[in-house]
Amino acid sequence: MASFFSKLFGLSGKSDAQAAAAEERETYNDLVLVATPMQEGSQYRLAGRIEKHGGDVVLVRTFVRADVFTSRDDTVAAAFRKGRQIVDQHGPSLFSDGEATRNV
User: Fold this and answer.
1) What DSSP character marks residue 20?
2) Domain encompassing residue 71
3) pLDDT < 50: residue spans in the chain
4) Which of 23, 34, 46, 95 is the least buried, fewest Cβ under 10 Å from its Cβ?
């Protein structure tokens, strides 16, 4: 019965440790790219974030795209490509506004 309500209300039952394990990281131009594929049924939506670490401050730029893949590995590879593309296109202006978090 609890499983029914979890599915009905969107509660995945995953712990924070399980969610963190689903993330993969890569360093690019002194930034950390994090692939966070979102499972939707049997497919995965391209999603990730770009982190800039500076002392105690971490600035984060998240992205979610319409692209879906059947393989989690393909989604992770595409998320890293998209993260590198965003960094290359925006350059220093990606974090110039000083906002802690923002979607790109």
Assistant:
1) H
2) 24-95
3) 4-8, 16-18
4) 23
